[in-house]
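I have a small job for you when you get a moment. Would you make up a two-line entry for one protein for me to read? No commentary is needed, just the two lines. Write everything out right here, beneath this request.
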Amino acid sequence: DPYAQLLLEAMKQSGCTVFNDRHFSCENCDGCVSGGFDSATSQIVLCQNNIRHQSHMNRVVTHELIHAFDHCRAHVDWFKNVKHLACSEIRAANLSGDCTLMNEIARFKFGLKGHHQTCVRDRAIRSILAVRKVSKETAEKAVDEVFDACFNDLEPFGRIPHSKTDAKRAYRDFQNRDRYNANL
């Protein structure tokens, strides 16, 4: 998957190499949660009982790898600073493919103007509420306060990948970043 390839390469370049047997765990999970990132162990949990097909698993892995990337590069305070969590959730919803038009149509939620931003905001709030015992108002406030900066933080993709083709282009661009900078 080009999304995962790019994130794994970016993490490696940031000094956080990911090992499949160490950093991924498949488990049965409660409710309808599909996955999570455990910052204490730097482990991505995939909820094998709630992931039904490969494309869903690819999105979950990408979403959680974005959290792992943020953990690696930004030293996120996951438990004490809800704004840090909000920022990573915004980035994960924005960059993982969670809010593609096809996914939104499948959820019977779609619009035209500004819909991607609305989806990202809504999914970030839902994710915060799923992992922290905070009020909806607290989650909404945190998302609103950091939304613009975090929505526009496109690292390591450099763009919002709206499809696998976009993700492949982003990965190719990422691989060539140093080559372009060396010529300056």
